[in-house]
Structures are given as C-alpha cells and as structure tokens.
Amino acid sequence: MPVAISFDIYGTLVDPLEMNEHLRPIVGEELADRFSELWRNKQIEYTFRRALMRRYEDFGICTQQALVHTATVLSVDLTDEEQER
C-alpha cells in the first residue's frame, strides 16, 4: 500500500494574514485587518463546502471568489488589476 505524507504549512510556516501590508494601500489602514481575515475565512469556507459537496474547484478559483465576496461585503471597489495582484 502506498504511503503519503502531508502537512499543513499555513499558520506554522506561512502567515496568511501577512497580506495586510499588500492590502493597506488598496483598502486602507482601517479595513486591512478585517478584509484579510474575512477573505481568508471565506477562502477556507468555500474550499471545505465544495469538498463536502464533492464539487471540487481549484484553490485559485476559491480564492478569487472569496476576494470578490469580501470586497462586496466591505464595499470595496477593486479594479481588475488589483484583483490580479
């Protein structure tokens, strides 16, 4: 039987909320923390929901859709260029 080893690097090696420094110039100082936290939560939620429904989407798609959701909820207008960054 094949053996697979995996580990989760987020929270251990990578801080997903480090995006704040990149978000500040776009969403402002006052929204950066909230934007980053909501974006990350939606990203994970979309990934888990799709897994449970057996409707896989690439993590990049989940990330993009979570970004659009977050911007809508927080009334932030993102340009196409800002979304691609």
UniProtKB/TrEMBL annotation:
- What name does UniProt use for this protein? Haloacid dehalogenase type II
Show the InterPro entries listed in the entry.
HAD-like_sf, HAD-SF_hydro_IA, PGP-like_dom2
User: Record's Gene3D superfamilies?
Assistant: Putative phosphatase, domain 2 (1.10.150.240)
Cross-referenced SUPFAM superfamilies: HAD-like
